Amino acid sequence: MSFPNESGITHSNGARLLFPAYPEQVSYVRVVDAQDREIAFWTIDEVSEDPADVLGAIFGAVLGGNALR
Length: 69
Description:
Blueprint lengths: L5 E5 L5 E5 L7 E5 L5 E6 H6 L1 H13 L6
């Protein structure tokens, strides 16, 4: 799958939270590691169906399972 027009946020560990760039609607969010390997992907439907669990999973994926320091 190709993602030609994305915006994102980069964590200090190199992981990035990516999503469609403006003016596109956010239809998905995904997390890639510092080597640009996709490690997680959620559609907007998954986010809206269970926001608490998906948000927790997004944060966990970005943090690599590590606690904040």
